Each structure stands twice: as C-alpha cells, then as structure tokens.
Queue: 2 jobs
Job 1
Amino acid sequence: MQKKAIIVSAPSGAGKTTIVKNLLRFIPSLEFSVSACSRTKRDGETNGKDYYFISGDEFRDKIADEEFIEWQEVYPGSYYGTLKSEMERIWSQEKNPIFDVDVVGGLNLKKYFGTEGLAIFIQPPSIGELEKRLRNRGTESDETLWKRINKAAYELNYAPHFDHIVINDDLEKKCREIADMVKHFLNI
Ligand code: ADP
Ligand code: 5GP
C-alpha cells in the first residue's frame, strides 16, 4: 500500500482538531495518529484516544531510547511527540495517518515523509478571532491563553513552508475544501 500521511498544523485555537475530526468522519482510510504527551489530561479526554498521557520522566526516557519520529517541547515543560510504535499500529491496519501537531512539528513530519506527506496549515482569520475561539473553548487559564496567543503570532511566519494554507473562516466550507485536497492526494 502507499504510505501517505496527512499533516494538519496550526496555532492552537485555529480549529485544527475540529477539522481533523471532520476528515476522520468522512474519509475512512484515515487513522488519527495519537501522540504521546506529558501535560495533564483535560476533562473529557481519554488516554490512548486523544493522547498517550505519560510523565515528563517517561517522555525523556523515550527520547533517550529514540522511540519518537518527532517530538517538541510545545510549551515549557509540556512535551508532545509521535512514537514510532504509533506508525506501526497505523500501517499495520493499512491506513493513512493523520497528524494534528504544532507548526514546527508539522514541518518536521513533512521533512520525514517528503512527497508522501501532505502538509496543511490552518490559519485563523485574525489573532483577535483566535483569542475569541480559545476563550470560547474554555480550556485555558489567562496564563496559558496568552502563551498560546504569543506563540501563534510567531507560528504564522511558518505558513508559507506548508503545501497548502487554508484560512479557517467558514468552517463547513473549509472542511469540504480540505477533504477534497486530501482525497485528491490519496487518489480516492
Ligand atoms: P485547535 O485544535 O487548533 O487548538 P480547535 O479545533 O479546538 O482548535 O478549535 C478552537 C475553538 O474554535 C473550538 O471551540 C472550535 O469549536 C472553534 N472553531 C473551530 N473552527 C471554527 C470556525 N471556523 N469558526 C468559529 N469557531 C471555530
Ligand atoms: P493541546 O495541549 O492543546 O492538546 O496541544 C498543544 C499543541 O501540541 C497543539 O498545537 C497540538 O497540535 C500539538 N501537538 C500534539 N501532538 C503533537 C506531536 O506529536 N508533536 C508536536 N510537535 N506537537 C503536537
């Protein structure tokens, strides 16, 4: 089978998780790549489904043992990464992994997969709208909200390195547009 991968990256709050969930619903050959992460689990999240939640020490041991294809300290003290074992799990089901990762992680994965990877950058309509979405999501304290917004301003500079940039304004329309892009790339 063709080992093609879909990489979706964006500043936190731009809507990538919403878009990835939509793609998973409508394109059955996609399988979500569950990252390992060292932050604490939020209400409503499931270990092994949203993330493999592990401690910082465990995460650092896995880095030393070269168990990751990519990892980042996305926020100070919070590590996130894709385990080689996760890729084996997905390829063994003859599915195509779809990644929901931060911007630098997305570019690292694009480098890893080369032409077999489709890297899509989800851009918020504006920083003001990003702040509104993060506030409405209700998952952030004032401190983590500002960390995410400051980081977003910097991450927008990386957009031109992706295969496609999609401004996430009209969610339904953009989900359709991205689904068409993905199907075209996977020849389905
Ligand atoms: P990310 O995964 O990039 O951090 P989410 O998918 O969690 O972002 O989206 C952040 C918030 O914005 C969520 O509450 C989501 O429902 C909302 N959202 C996503 N896309 C849109 C959109 N196009 N218009 C308005 N709200 C949106
Ligand atoms: P959150 O804490 O909101 O779930 O995620 C924080 C950020 O980490 C998001 O931008 C998310 O996409 C990113 N992320 C999740 N998994 C990975 C990963 O495996 N690698 C990298 N580099 N970033 C990830």
Job 2
Amino acid sequence: MRRNRNKGLERILGRLEDLDEKNLTILVNRLVRDRHLLESVFDVIRDGILVLDGESVIQYSNAAATRLLGLRRREIGNSNIWRRIPELAHALQIDPDQLRPAQRSASCEIEIHYPETRVVQVYFVPMEEATEHELGDGTVVVFSDLTEIKHSTKELIENERIASIMMLAAGVAHELGNPLNSLTIHLQLIRRQLEKLGTSEKTARTEKSLNICTREVDRLDGIITHFLAAVRPQTPDLRKVDPIAILNEVLEVEENLFSERNVNVTIDLEAMPPPIFADPDQLKQVFFNVLKNAVEAMPGGGSIRIRWRKDARHFTLMFADTGEGIDPEDLTKVFQPYFTTKTTGNGLGMMVVQRIMRDHHGTIAIDSRPDKGTVVTLQFPVIDPERPLLEDS
Ligand code: ADP
Ligand code: MG
C-alpha cells in the first residue's frame, strides 16, 4: 500500500513540470486538503502523538500531546524531546544532551510534572521505510494518559483492603464478645459470694482485686465497642446539618482533654456556615479523630486553629496544629490501616476519617511540615450529593 502510494507520488512529482498553472493549483489544494484531513483525524485521537526527527526534535504534535505536555507552537521544529521531558530521558536512561534518534521501540510508564502531574504510558515506534522519508530515522511517540485509571485502581485496592479489615473486625468482635460476657457474669457471681462472706481483711483484699478485674473487663468491652463502631462500614444517614454546631459539640465534650494537655483551640468565625449534608454521628467521629491526632502531636501543649471557608459548591474546614508534623515519607501512609507512629496508637483513626469523608462525597487532604505543624483539610459538598440536581429549598 505504502509503496504504491509513494510510487504514485513520485509519478506526480515527476510530472510536475508538465502541469499547467490550473492543474498545479488543483494538485496543491488537494495535498493541503489531505493534510488537513489527516491532522483533524490525529487531533480527535485521545492519545498524544509526537513525531520526532533523526535528532529527536519534535516535528509534529497532535492536539492531545500538545495539551498533555503543555507544548507551545514555537517548540514544534525546535524542541528536543529528551530535554523537554527529562522524566522520559531518565526512565529510558538517555543522556538528554546527546542528540540521537530514539531508534528503538520502547515503552515506559512515567509521571510527568508539567503542566500538571499525570501518569503516562509512552510508546516509541521507529518509523518504517525511514530512509525514503524526509524525517530520516524518525520516531513516532504515543502518550496514553493513565492518571484516571491509576486512581480508580488505587481506590479499588484500598476499598478491598478496608473490606478485609471490616471482616476481620467483625470476626474478632464475635470471638471476644462471648468470653467477655461470660467473664462479666462470673465476676458478678464472685462479688455476690464475696458479699455473703462479710467484711474482713481477706475479703477486702479480694474485693480490691475484683474491682480491678471488673474495671479492666469494662475497659476491654469499651475498646471493642469503639473499635467496631469505628471500622464497621455504615452507610451514612445524610441530613442537612450545621457543621460548626456539630464541631462545637465535640469541642465541648473534649474540653477537659484540651486543658489537661495545655492545648488552646480557636475557631475563626466570620460568617454563618452553610449547612452541609452529613451524618451527625459520623461527622463527630471525623472531628474527634482529627482533633485527637492534633492533641497527640503536641505532647508539650500547643494550639489548634480551626478555620473554614465556603464557595458555591464546597464547605472547607481546616484544622491547623502546632505539633511535631509528619515526615514526608510517612505522609502517604497516614491513611493506611494500622499505620501509627505512636506506642499506644492503633493506626485506624485516619483510615476511618478517610472512609467517612468518602461516604460523604467529600475529600481529606493533609499538609504537614516536620516540627512546624499539620493542617488537615476536610472538604464537603454543600449540595445534597444524592440529589445533586435539586436546589434545596
Ligand atoms: P493513630 O493516631 O492511632 O496513630 P491515625 O490513623 O489516627 O492512628 O494516625 C496515623 C498516624 O498519622 C499517626 O500515628 C501520626 O503519625 C500521623 N498523624 C495523623 N495526624 C497527625 C497530626 N495532626 N500531626 C502529626 N502526625 C499526625
Ligand atoms: Mg489517631
């Protein structure tokens, strides 16, 4: 096919001298039209396509590649691909200063950071019949944007991991619930028998031990109950609520904790907060977990500043503490189940926060500087996420 077409082209070019002005114009117009047609076709392709010449200079870029790479018009014909996308040179271990053709077929997955961060699969295809072509030993480069696919896969894995913890938790509760009940009943029986023995030095000592046992069993029961409340997947009962009123309820309950730990909490209140659609109990859980982490990050005391802002679509709450901050390499692990840097931590708090935020169609972001502090940002939609098209009355 291609050879025939090239032969046809050669025949036409050979006859160029014979053509009169009119036929030459028709021919040129046809070539221009063909080129436009091809370019339009390339521009509707979702993958980015670049054509490089023998010195790896970008000679053509379709619309998707231009967008993805933030290419400017003047870069076409001038820009060397390795210098333009250093991440690519790095992935293929190519020295960007060496002007040489890509030549080989290659494929790699890279993360590019300009104009925005995207995960991209890149294929290099050396051009066939290169010697006949004006681009010499050129190369076609195809860019497929994998960012969305990556994200959804990551979410899927995360959901599966959470689901397996839920199952584990349910199993643990089932296993621990029965012996705990039995312990409680027998402790009560012992107490009754002890009462029958009357008071003496011996019974007083036994009663003391019994009290400790009862307290510890109660504590175990509490831990399990809270643990289950935190990890059991619950569909939120979304209602129109005032987020700041709910936050204030949590702050009141935790007042003693703050004063004991020398933590000063302030809320910037400039205007009326908009109502959001949330499950009040789950929202309390989110606020509690975030505040608890902030307090625990400030063993010597400090402050928590809470601010909020709203726009047409979102209500955003920011909790800024002056604590020890999070190491950059730990930042990605904070939401992982069981990740903790504390001796008494369980590493489930932030996972629960993330799950609840997701169920509320909201997001959570963490920004932290070691030794300076951490800002946790919660963003909620202000319109009913289950009836997004209805304006609330
Ligand atoms: P836990 O509090 O039981 O450790 P979390 O899931 O609540 O578990 O938090 C996980 C980890 O994230 C913590 O151990 C801590 O290292 C880090 N972290 C979370 N919030 C903060 C914060 N405000 N300041 C510093 N570190 C934090
Ligand atoms: Mg915690």
